[in-house]
Design the sequence.
């Protein structure tokens, strides 16, 4: 959140969108807190500032109300910012950084300008500072007493900055421009001697000497008349200099400083942020080192900054790549300093000069460079050094700027522009994205690849891309930069033996690895486990390894080079086996933590390791390691299921099962078959897993898999079979003392009961499941128990309670990253919105749920959301749209053996027929719905079908038959404990439109 006081009070979000503070007192409160610059303001002081003598009846309450309003407005504009308005013993304060306010940014820029000796840089910084002003400070509170001191202080700072900039521009010789711009300011401040002095200097230097002398006399007279004072020493000295026509008052004709750096021949792309950071670092520190892997563009950035850097004695480049020794003589040669035979130290020779020295490619002489640069910086105050190196120089005062690869959009732009320059358009966006991703955004690699487009085409290049293809760079480039392999080899040759060993073995990891993984997979061959951490640290400092978020990663071109080294040494297969075995063990260890308090942390760990786990599975399958492959998929199956990765689960399990298994893999194979069958239920590819359960000898594993097969059928399979599996699993869990399993079985039975209309059982089992899951610390389990409790509240018309349950479930699902469950909870909330008449909100929630399910390839959740969209469409009268949703869902349910949901969809199609006036079709559809509901023992669905049949009878002219059916439905609901809620008694989702009309026309003669 950003705040503006340099003009009318303004608030912006982090993205620059303005925030409206709607009420005058709330705006005044914010302004009062802002002018205190983070200091506390007592409640009494705020009340006095806001209301003065016109106090409200309850001042403390009124103030608290305004504070709450301010917090709410800020939080709505930028969620998570409610605590910006803090409160403590000393009062209220804004807990924001100084640069969150434009006045703070202004002060920082002015301060930096004051520390900068270069007038051009100083002028630019002051121009940036003054550009922050949008008008008089706090213009809308100019009359507020609390704002007066701050306004005065800010306006004085603005005026001082205007004076500073005028003086800097005069130092640059911009007298004509300053004279034209400073006239109005001098007229507004006739007694401010510094403004007047700058104006007089500008007039004189612009050739308007007579005007300058006349203006001086006017200032002298006004000082005498209004203050009774003479001009100060500065003005008096300036007047004397003008009278004697001092040449120093005229603009200097500057000779361009020596600039011994090559001019760029191509535009730099995507480096605006890095260029800014380097310039700022160079203004603050006299030694700045750009680090990063080979080819990332360190030299190009250094030259870009050097090309626009102003120093009195010039900018000088020293190329070190081809040197094997670096000393003071190297610097003397680059600077053109004559050796007069006096043996004077270079620091003494350069003392008093101001220059920028660019040292390019220091990595192979980094110790020698440090030995030269350190003393020079201490001996020559005007010296600045901009170095490029794969690792820092480690000299006191050094500022290190890590140059990252290009962002994807900038990488694509660089590649396409270079390809076009080579004579061939790269117009296949997907292929370009693939190339940029494979090359990890390294500019040199992208430019080398772009040069291949004319010969191969961009699609062919994307398919055939490999390290050795990236050669034939520009002939005028150094030999080490003509191929990407030579760039990497340059760095490889500088590494020690242990560094090469660890780096090469890291290359088998995909997407990076943790320190633990590196220690377990990279040790050996003369590198001890305890040494790996230190070696990694050195590789990070040498820009060969990228470290972040606790993970170590190689850029893909470096990884490919290292894999080639492993292959040449005959170590690649062994390294991949170590990688495979480590991640198989990790998956097994993670699985044991996914049903307890560590659930969220281990889900995050598995999420981070997905690429490595896939690579481990590929390795196991490729080499026929059936037991390892089955271990990997069995350990991950539960994670895949709860996170909605059903497609990946299905494919991975099938691949593992296809490997010819050894005898020892029998139990693992049976478990995988059970996972496959359960996941198949969710994806419409159900299989028979009864045999697999028989082959599971371990009682605990058999209970878990039996439970899973029952749980996976909820809403998509044969309900009776699912309930039987859960009941049997519950007994087996009880026998082995598995409390998590007991809770899971109860949660599943509660959900089946809710679907079947047995609300009493749903409530009882749901509450017990929630308590057990809370005991074992399983948030996923709490979510499973929450859903039937919400359904129970929905069915009984307790919509606020249902909303609370489903919202709690949604928050848990989002926190755990369980996107299929997020889809389900969003659909559930959509149903509540539908029942409470908020159709727009219902459609929004159901569509959000549908998109999330599609992203997760979760067909069951997709159809559940689509049914909700169909219900809304029917209510809105969009009958064709609703029919399309219902028939698609019915086809899906029949394919997987739907049961209860099939009864609902047939009834909904029957209601559509009623609304179209087709009594015969309505009667047929409701009869079929009734048959399905009775077969599934679904009392709620049976009552729903009977009410639908009643509507069809009314359309057919048989109100007496309709009355009987409605009475039967009412009795059935009462026996099942699912009465129509009073607020919903005649709701269109509970009873047909036709029956509602009949009830109205018979004046209550039809009992219900």
Sequence:
């Amino acid at each position: 959140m950003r705040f503006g006081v340099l003009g009318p009070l303004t608030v912006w979000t982090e993205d620059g969108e303005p925030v409206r503070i709607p009420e005058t007192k709330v705006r005044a409160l914010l302004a009062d807190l802002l002018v205190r610059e983070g200091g506390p303001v007592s409640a009494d002081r705020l009340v006095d500032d806001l209301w003065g003598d016109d106090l409200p009846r309850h001042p403390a309450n009124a103030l608290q109300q305004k504070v709450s309003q301010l917090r709410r407005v800020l939080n709505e504009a930028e969620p998570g910012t409610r605590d910006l308005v803090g409160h403590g013993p000393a009062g209220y304060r804004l807990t924001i950084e100084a640069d969150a306010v434009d006045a703070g940014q202004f002060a920082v820029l002015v301060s930096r300008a004051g520390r900068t000796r270069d007038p051009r840089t100083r002028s630019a910084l002051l121009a940036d500072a003054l550009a922050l002003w949008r008008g008089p400070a706090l213009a809308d509170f100019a009359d507020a007493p609390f704002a007066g001191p701050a306004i005065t202080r800010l306006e004085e700072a603005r005026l001082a900055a205007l004076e500073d900039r005028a003086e800097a521009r005069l130092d640059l010789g911009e007298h004509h421009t300053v004279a034209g711009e400073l006239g109005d300011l001098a007229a507004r401040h006739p007694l401010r001697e510094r403004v007047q002095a700058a104006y007089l200097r500008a007039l004189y230097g612009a050739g308007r000497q007579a005007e300058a002398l006349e203006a001086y006399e006017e200032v002298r007279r006004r000082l005498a008349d209004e203050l009774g004072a003479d001009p100060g020493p500065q003005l008096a000295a300036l007047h004397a200099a003008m009278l004697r026509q001092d040449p120093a008052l005229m603009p200097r004709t500057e000779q361009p400083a020596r600039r011994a750096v090559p001019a760029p021949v191509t535009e730099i792309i995507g480096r605006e942020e890095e260029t800014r950071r380097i310039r700022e670092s160079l203004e603050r520190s006299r030694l700045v080192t750009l680090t990063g892997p080979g080819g990332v563009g360190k030299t190009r950035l250094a030259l870009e900054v050097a090309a626009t850097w102003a120093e009195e004695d010039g900018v000088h480049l020293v190329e070190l790549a081809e040197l094997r020794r670096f000393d003071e003589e190297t610097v003397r040669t680059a600077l053109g300093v004559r050796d007069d035979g006096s043996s004077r130290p270079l620091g003494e020779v350069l003392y008093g000069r101001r220059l920028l020295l660019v040292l390019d490619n220091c990595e192979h002489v980094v110790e020698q460079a440090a030995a030269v640069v350190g003393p020079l910086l201490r001996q020559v105050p005007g010296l600045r050094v901009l170095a490029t190196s794969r690792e820092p120089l480690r000299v006191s005062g050094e500022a290190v700027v890590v140059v990252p690869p290009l962002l994807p959009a900038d990488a694509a732009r660089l590649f396409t522009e270079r390809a076009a320059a080579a004579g061939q358009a790269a117009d296949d966006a997907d292929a370009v994205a693939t190339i940029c991703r494979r090359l990890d955004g390294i500019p040199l690699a992208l430019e080398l690849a772009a040069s291949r487009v004319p010969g191969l085409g961009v699609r062919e290049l994307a398919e055939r891309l490999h390290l050795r293809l990236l050669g034939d760079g520009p002939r005028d480039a150094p030999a080490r930069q003509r191929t990407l392999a030579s760039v990497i080899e340059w760095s490889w040759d500088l590494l020690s033996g242990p560094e090469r060993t660890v780096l090469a073995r890291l290359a088998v990891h995909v997407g990076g690895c943790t320190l633990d993984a590196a220690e377990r997979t990279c040790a050996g061959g003369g590198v001890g486990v305890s040494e790996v951490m230190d070696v990694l640290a050195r590789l990070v400092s040498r820009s060969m390894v990228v470290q972040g978020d606790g993970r170590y990663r190689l850029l893909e071109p470096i990884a490919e080079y290292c894999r080639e080294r492993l292959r040449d040494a005959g170590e690649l297969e062994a390294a991949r086996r170590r990688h495979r075995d480590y991640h198989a063990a990790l998956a097994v260890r993670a699985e044991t933590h996914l049903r307890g308090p560590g659930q969220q942390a281990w889900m995050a760990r598995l999420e981070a390791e997905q690429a490595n786990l896939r690579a481990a599975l590929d390795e196991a399958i490729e080499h026929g390691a059936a037991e390892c492959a089955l271990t990997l998929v069995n350990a991950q199956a539960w994670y895949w299921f709860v996170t909605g990765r059903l497609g990946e689960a299905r494919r991975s399990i099938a691949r593992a099962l296809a490997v010819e298994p050894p005898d020892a893999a029998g139990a693992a194979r049976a478990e995988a078959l059970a996972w496959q069958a359960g996941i198949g239920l969710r994806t419409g590819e159900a299989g028979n897993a009864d045999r697999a359960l028989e082959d599971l000898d371990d009682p605990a594993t058999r209970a878990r898999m039996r439970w899973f097969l029952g749980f996976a059928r909820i809403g998509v399979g044969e309900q009776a079979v699912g309930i039987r599996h859960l009941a049997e699993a519950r007994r087996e869990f009880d026998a082995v003392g598995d409390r998590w399993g007991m809770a899971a079985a109860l949660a599943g039975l509660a959900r089946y009961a809710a679907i079947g209309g047995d609300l009493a059982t749903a409530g009882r089992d749901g509450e017990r499941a929630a308590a057990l899951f809370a005991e074992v610390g399983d948030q996923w389990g709490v979510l499973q128990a929450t859903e039937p409790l919400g359904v129970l509240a929905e069915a009984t018309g307790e919509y606020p309670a249902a909303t609370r349950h489903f919202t709690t479930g949604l928050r848990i699902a989002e926190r755990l990253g369980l996107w299929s469950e997020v889809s389900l909870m969003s659909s559930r909330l959509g149903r509540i919105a539908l029942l409470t008449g908020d159709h727009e909100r219902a459609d929004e929630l159901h569509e959000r749920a549908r998109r999330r399910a599609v992203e997760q390839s979760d067909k069951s959740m997709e159809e559940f959301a689509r049914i909700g969209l169909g219900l809304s469409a029917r209510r809105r009268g969009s009958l064709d749209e609703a029919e399309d949703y219902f028939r698609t869902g019915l086809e899906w349910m029949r394919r997987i053996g739907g049961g209860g949901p099939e009864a609902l969809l047939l009834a909904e199609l029957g209601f559509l027929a009623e609304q179209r006036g087709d009594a015969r079709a309505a009667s047929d559809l409701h009869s079929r719905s009734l048959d399905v509901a009775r077969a599934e023992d679904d009392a709620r669905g049976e009552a729903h079908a009977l009410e639908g049949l009643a509507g069809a009878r009314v359309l057919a002219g048989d109100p007496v038959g309709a009355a009987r059916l409605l009475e039967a439905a009412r009795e059935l609901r009462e026996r099942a404990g699912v009465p129509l809620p009073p607020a919903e008694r005649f709701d269109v989702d509970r009873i047909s439109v036709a029956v509602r009309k009949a009830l109205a026309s018979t004046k209550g003669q039809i009992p219900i």
Observations:
- The two ends are 58 Å apart (CA to CA).
- The mean pLDDT is 85.
- The first strand starts at residue 2 and ends at 4.
